[in-house]
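User: Some background: our group keeps a shared notebook of sequences we're curious about, and every so often someone picks one and asks for a predicted structure to add to the entry. Today it's my turn. The entry only has the sequence so far, pasted here. Could you supply the structure so I can complete it?
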Amino acid sequence: MRLAERVARLGTETAFAVSARTAALAAEGHKVYYFNLGDLNFATPRVVVEGAEAALAEGKTGYCPNAGIAELREAMAQVTNETHGTSYGLNNVAIQPGGKPVIGKFLLSLMNPGDEVLYPNPGFPIYESMIQFHGGVAVPYGFKEGEKNFALDLEGLESSITDRTRLLILNDLQNPTGAECSPEELKRLAELAVEHDLYVLSDEAYYDIRFEGDSQSIVSLPGMEERCVILYTFSKKFAMTGWRVGAALGPADVIETIIQLNINDESCPNHFAQYGALAGLKGDQSEVQAMLAALKERRDTAVDLLNSMEGVRCYRPHATFYLYPNLTGAMAAKGMDYNEFHEALLMETGVSACTRLHFGSELPGETQRYLRMAYSGIDLDQIEEGLTKMKAWVEG
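Assistant: Of course. Here's the predicted structure to add to the notebook entry:
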């Protein structure tokens, strides 16, 4: 069979391959500590479950409007207006089967073949995959270690803009680094978007996974509401990764195109799951707050243990549930490259993590070495046990 040429450009999310390898080891009886995948081991809040159960009981199991149910679209617009200072209405919202489909539909709506798209690297690997699969040119921009967190390489980003650049993908509160844009960085990005007539995908999957301070959005800056599409997902805040409910919010003409893509791709979002999401938005938030408190405790424990290891340093990000420790010294002491260190860490200690290479190829000039460690799916006692074993191995 001769597959379409575009298939050769289709990437993947290799963190799932790490999960498969880890699961196989666990099935063989090995003790494993799951820092590898950004899933959540918290129950979906009861208010969400009850909302979906009530919808099921009422027969909400057939087709629904292609854009999603009006009640959820209106609630999404209202909540976003309150947090972002936007002026969205129902026509600015298209419900999606998760957050990830927003990436492809944003590109299909706004990118022509040959257009250049700026995307973060290290970053969520589906950005690059979808850009290339749909015929665009993926142009990476990177990050630098700052005083308290990673900072955008704004100079590198700006120098990459050409007369073919059309789109910018921004994942503030970032996977995998936990990086958070400063107000100055957001302001400069907005200026560049206006100056070069760029449309922006603002991936805000982790906007509500926050432990200190307040999240900010580029959409809130002057001139950006009309040139941004927000990627929203219920997966993180409401521990709904398997429910597959998300949303695209943006200019009405772009959202209308995304709705048309809904019709072509999946007809409509899951009917009854949307009522669960609606109940989550409007209902009691105590379980969400309890989850955030538990995640913060996990973060602090993991950061402290990582920073106690020789040859390791780690920021304490204010948002997301990822850590991106620098292990350059530890890897050099072991005389190992990424793949050797990753495999030895798993086999010698049971700690399963991802490396920087799971989030894009290294950029020219990179000399530092990193792991990405998710603490969303591992309990506090297992964090302590696993990282204590890792410390003994790193320093042994």
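Suggested note for the entry: The mean pLDDT is 95. The chain has two domains: 5-43+287-395, 61-282.
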